[in-house]
Amino acid sequence: MVLTLETDPPPFDLNEVINQWFDWNPDVPIADDYPSTTYTASEAERLVAVGIAMNRLCEATPKTITDEAAATATPEWRELHAAVERAMAEMLILGHLPGDDQDAARGGLHGKNGVRTG
User: Fold this and answer.
1) Per residue in 32-84, pLDDT tens?
2) Of the residues 7, 27, 32, 94, which has the maximum number of CB atoms within 10 A of its CB?
């Protein structure tokens, strides 16, 4: 959702994107939050960078974002977008996690079966 909008209008707003990130990721991420049985050290590093960028966006925008155009025009949004691009590029190197729909993007944030196939 951060990289591309899947539908027009999107299925949910930016507030929901942020909420979903924090549903599955810690408020203050560290590499140990992404286990080595599922993620490479580089992938974990990239996910931590996404978390840091997400936190910066949250600090720079109102608690409830009512003007998405303004929020996505901030330097913090551009930083988040770039962090997500780098994370996705890194994670696509090894591809899907076991149990992922092969037609979907790389998979769940914490994996489904916990062991990489790549």
Assistant:
1) 999 988 889 999 999 999 999 999 999 999 999 999 989 999 999 999 999 99
2) 94
Q: Report the C-alpha gap between 7 and 76 in whole angstroms.
A: 24
Q: Residue 9 — very low, low, confident or very high, per pLDDT cuts 50/70/90?
A: low
Question: From the CB of residue 45, how many other CB atoms can be counted at a distance below 10 Å?
Answer: 15
Distances (CA, A) of 3 to 65, 78, 116: 18, 10, 24
**Omega of the bond prior to 29 within 30 degrees of 0, cis?**
no
What is the model's pLDDT at position 8?
61
CA distance 104 to 118: 16
Q: What is the pTM of this model?
A: 0.75
